[in-house]
Amino acid sequence: MFKWPWKADDESGNAEMPWEQALAIPVLAHLSSTEQHKLTQMAARFLQQKRLVALQGLELTPLHQARIAMLFCLPVLELGIEWLDGFHEVLIYPAPFIVDDEWRMILVWSTTSGWYSRDKAGNRVL
Length: 126
Description:
Elements: H1 5-8, H2 19-22, H3 33-49, E1 51-54, H4 62-73, E2 89-92, E3 97-100, E4 105-111, E5 114-118, E6 124-125
Parallel strand pairs: 1-2
Antiparallel strand pairs: 3-4, 4-5, 5-6
Helix pairs in contact: 3-4
GO molecular function, one term: aminopeptidase activity
Protein name: Inner membrane protein
Organism: Klebsiella pneumoniae IS43
């Protein structure tokens, strides 16, 4: 994937993100301070490289944006952000939905306790 160099250097949009508040969720509680710092840096880079697209009238606060970026980066924290290459946008729906295609069916929803999705067998997945 081609990297746009002018986007990678633009940190002005991430300077005021509520990173400390975004870290205050149970799934991130086990991280050391070093890992939290690394995740915050990676999430800031994620927001520079990707566009979060809120659909159906949903409005994303800076806290939402920071948490979404952190949750995307957490699985690849030790692998590097390059593992998230291959897409440019993240579509964010305000309500649960079902995707049914030949590959798989996934139900995704959010609750006050976090974001979840289930595979066709009903197993909770990231």
